Amino acid sequence: MSENNRNETNEQTHKTVNVTPVPVVSTPHFDTFTFATSGNQIVKVDGISTNEGAEQLSGFNPTGGDVLNLANVIKGSAATLATLGNYITATTSAAGDTTLSYDATGTGLPGTPFAVLKGVTVTVAQLLADNALVLAAPAVVTPAPTPHFDTFTFATTGNQTAKVDGISANEGAEQLSGFNPTAGDVLNLANVIKGSAATLATLGNYITATTSVAGDTTLSFDATGTGLAGTPFAVLKGVTVTVAQLLADNALSLGSVAPVVTSPTLHADTFTFATAGNQTATVDGISTNEAAEQFVGFNPTGGDVLNLANVIKGSAATLATLGNYITATTSAAGDTTLSFDATGTGLAGTPFAVLKGVTVTVAQLLTDNALEVALPPAALPFDTITMATAGNQTVLVDAISTKEAAQQFVAFNPTGGDVLNLANVVAGSTATLATLGGFITATTSAAGDTTLSYDPTGTGQAGTAFAVLKGVSITVAQLLADNALSLTAAPTTSVSGTHVNLVQNSAVLSYGAGNYDISVKGTGETITLGAGNSEVSGPTGSSTITIGDGRQEVLLTGTGNTITVGNNTTTGVTEILAGSGQEHVTAGNGAVYIVGSGSSDVVSVGNGNDTVIETARNGGTSVGLTSVTLGSGTDAVFLGGNGNTVVMGAGVDRIYGGAGGDSFVVNALGGTDTISNFTLTNADTLNLTQILSGAALAHDLSNLSSFISLSSVIDTKVASGYDTSLTITGTSGTAHVTLLNTGAITLANLVGDNSLVLPPH
Question: Is 751:701 a contact under the CB 8 Å cutoff?
Answer without folding.
Answer: yes
